[in-house]
Amino acid sequence: MRVMKRPWFIPMLLTLIILAVGGLFIGSLLTKEKVLADVEIRSLLEGMYNGSVADLTMENGVYGAEIVRNDAVYVVEIDAVTGSVLSLVQTGGAGKASTQVLSEEEIRGMIAEKNTGEVEHISLDESDGEPVYEVKLSKNQQLTTVKMDAKTGLVLSEKIDETTIENAVITKKQAIKIAHKKLKGEVEYVTFKKTDDGGYYLIEIDGDHDEAVFQIHAISGKVLSIIWDD
User: Fold this and answer.
1) CA–CA separation, 228 vs 209, rounded Å?
2) Fold of 33-95
3) Measuring CA to CA, which residue among 146, 147, 161, 169 is closest to residue 202?
4) What does the CA dihedral 47, 52, 54, 58 come to, rounded to 10 degrees?
5) First and final CA of the chain: distance in angstroms?
6) Residue 205: other Cβ atoms inside 10 A
7) pLDDT tens-digit profile of 87-144?
8) Residues paired with residue 229 on neighbouring β-strands, in sequence order
9) Which residues pair with 67 in a beta bridge?
10) CATH class of segment(s) 97-161
11) How far apart are CA 104 and CA 108, in angstroms?
């Protein structure tokens, strides 16, 4: 072909190839999930469990580590991208709380050491054989659910509750305005609960003299219930 003999054709072709390959490479970097460094994982575990971390390894996107705390040894697995704890198993040592369930006061003390949020609710779940405390913490208008081993006090998981949904008929901001019509004050937290009829918001407001939790329908905006704190 005559076009192949033109002096500008080959340099232009090479440029197009380089741009295409470079675009694919950059695209792969943008879509690849960032893995947390082992230093970050070690710091996260030490802060979460207040113990020493040993034998930190990573395989197939999961960090594995051994934690020593209060003469007890635990093996933990952590998601390398999100830092979420996938499993925690005690493999050695008796530990202070191996046979006795910690009190709510002890759990509150442990929570206060690691969190700046306010404890809204604590419940003990013994249905699965191994007792677990579920603690609800409010901070920055969010509610975080923390699950802790009731015998050791180790944090098993932390999850921020949903505060709204995408394209909601009644937005989080609108739901707060509806609640403020009933009670003026500081919003402690907002959570969203999914249901078959559209879901609802739970909003806790701390007023000057009263405190209440409002249940507001996410489609109609109707106040379904108000629980006043005596």
Assistant:
1) 11
2) Nuclear Transport Factor 2; Chain: A, (3.10.450)
3) 161
4) -10
5) 89
6) 22
7) 777 776 654 445 588 889 888 888 887 777 889 999 999 887 789 999 999 988 899 9
8) none
9) 53, 74
10) alpha beta
11) 6
Half-sphere exposure of 207 (CA within 13 A, CB side): 16
- The model's pTM is 0.56
Percent of the chain clearing pLDDT 90 (strictly above): 28
Q: Which of 83, 85, 88 is closest to 69 using CA atoms?
A: 88
The owner of tokens 């594995």 is 64
Q: What are the b/e assignments for 112-137, b being 16+ CB within 10 Å? A: eeebebebeebeeeeeeeeebbbbbb
Helix (H, G, I), strand (E, B) or coil at 195: coil
Ranges of each domain in the chain:
33-95, 97-161, 172-228
Contacts of 156 (CB under 8 A, 6+ apart): 85, 88, 132, 147, 148, 149
Distance CA 67, CA 88 (A): 10
Q: Which residues touch 126 (CB under 8 Å, ≥6 apart)?
A: 132, 150
